[in-house]
User: Which sequence fits this backbone?
């Protein structure tokens, strides 16, 4: 999609992109929706009139009237199954926002999946699968998958997803999981089109949130996000949480993106496909054959 007519740029906030949108009667689930970018996404959707449920590992005491919280552990497929089975009625939007980053050592889920891939991709795959009927019932439903620019550094290695043979690297594992997230949107957008479901992925940009808890101080300093005394600072290229949540809010509720599916967005715009560089979406993250094979591998685990 070139020459986009979407009137928002990198510094728009989640509230900005939903200004004038009427989401009354819309039901939304936001994973990790009670903290960080998820909270800002929830806040904007609530302000636009949506009924928002935050799916969280543990309920948080937050001052956001109207936000419901239900337990969900993405690393535990039984927990994901319980959430989906207890959901009643239609679901208009699923925002797959929760995630982990840069886990220092190789860890595996109960199913033997590398932990970042298990959390960021497999848990959300299982959740979307479990909620498919509710999404289809809503008609014109949307799946929004929060990915990262880190996907450009690491395609999905279908021959060694869990670092059984290659040396584990936390950033490669993170990048792979974020490529997988985009492939989830690609596959869902194709497979579930007849259900009236669209799916898109996004890069929120650089934002200081709890996602950086595993990132060492030297890396934070190299990013310009920490001074020599260990204090967090925000470089000019970082966004505020409200700005970082804007693209997710746009894809979840804006009429400007109605009907668009299987795409990757950044800075509130559809991204160009690029072979290298600091922006855009890598071809490996949009490859339909890889998307289908990864879907099939996930189905073998989820059932």
Assistant:
């Amino acid at each position: 999609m070139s020459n986009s007519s979407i009137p928002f740029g990198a510094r728009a906030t989640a509230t900005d992109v939903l200004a004038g949108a009427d989401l009354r009667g819309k039901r939304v689930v936001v994973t990790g929706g009670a903290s960080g970018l998820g909270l800002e996404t929830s806040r904007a959707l609530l302000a636009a009139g949506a009924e928002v449920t935050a799916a969280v590992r543990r309920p948080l005491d937050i001052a956001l009237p109207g936000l419901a919280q239900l337990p969900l552990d993405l690393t535990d497929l039984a927990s994901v199954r319980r959430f989906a089975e207890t959901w009643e009625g239609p679901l208009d939007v699923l925002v797959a926002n929760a995630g982990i980053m840069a886990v220092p050592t190789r860890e595996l889920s109960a199913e033997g999946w590398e932990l970042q891939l298990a959390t960021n991709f497999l848990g959300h795959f299982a959740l979307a699968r479990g909620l498919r009927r509710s999404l289809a019932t809503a008609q014109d439903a949307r799946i929004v998958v929060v990915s990262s620019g880190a996907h450009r550094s690491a395609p999905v290695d279908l021959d060694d997803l869990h670092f059984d043979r290659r040396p584990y690297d936390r950033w490669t594992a993170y990048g792979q999981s974020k490529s997988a997230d985009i492939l989830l949107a690609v596959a869902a957008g194709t497979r579930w089109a007849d259900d009236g479901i669209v799916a898109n992925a996004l890069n929120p940009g650089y934002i200081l949130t709890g996602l950086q808890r595993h990132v060492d101080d030297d890396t934070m300093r190299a990013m310009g996000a920490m001074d020599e005394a260990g204090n967090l600072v925000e470089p000019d290229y970082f966004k505020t949480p409200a700005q970082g949540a804007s693209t997710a809010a746009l894809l979840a509720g804006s009429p400007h993106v109605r009907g668009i599916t299987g795409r990757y967005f950044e800075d509130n715009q559809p991204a160009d496909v690029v072979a290298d560089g600091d922006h855009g979406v890598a071809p490996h993250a949009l490859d339909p054959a890889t998307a289908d094979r990864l879907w099939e591998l996930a189905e073998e685990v989820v059932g």
Observations:
- Strands lie at 27-31, 51-56, 68-71, 93-96, 141-146, 197-203, 264-266, 269-270.
- Residues 170-191 form the longest helix (22 residues).
- The mean pLDDT is 92.
- The longest strand covers residues 197-203.
